Amino acid sequence: MPKAQPAAPAAAPEDPSPRLHASALLFDMDGTLVDSTALVESTWADFSARHRTDLTEVLAYAHGRPTRETVAHFVADPELAASETRRLVAHEQSETTGITEIPGARVFLAELPRGSWGIVTSADRKLAEVRLAAAGLPLPEVLVSADDVVRGKPHPEGYLRAAALLGVEPGGTIVFEDSGAGVRAGLASGARTVVIGGLAEFDEVVERHADFRGFRVAAASSAATGVSLTAPEPLVGRAGAGR
Which single residue of 2, 63, 86, 111 could bond 217 by disulfide (Cβ 3.0 to 4.6 Å)? Predict the structure, then answer.
């Protein structure tokens, strides 16, 4: 009687996590990598009280935009607007109370190959450096700040500039954003755009995640070949949305 053949080993279960690939990753800072919500809200609350403007309206406009643009939108006098901008910027650069990382951001950034990612922020460079340090996050090789662009978000200038500095095509990048102005900038640049946080405005066209927990970088990723990721299931949207 012939011997029974040993059973073939069971195939390893396929990893169900969505897989993403990009030539480079581009991140917004405030609200995306850095949680500065309490400080930002208190800063604009003081501004609103000084100028008798509606705080809800100010916060809605300010989210994702450079300070100078928001001040100019609500203060008609150019000299007063310039003075207020200087005052607000000085306050923001000197205050770090309550600033923390968005959950998972530090671990995720530490896995990324050097030269494969950058930050595009509506903050000026000094403020960006202060807040990244306060949150315990690394400074990337490419950081495009409000100092580096003529047109802020929702214009795509910042993301187009960051892609050029990294030597990649904008359409091959993934942009991570948390504001309406930022998402519009990412989409206008041609990048695949992912929402981090609670912004639901774009749920039909992009995927959204609560934070960076569950994002992992494949070992073979490099600045030369691009970044491969596994990602958790999105809160809404679908893997591959936004392209």
Answer: 111
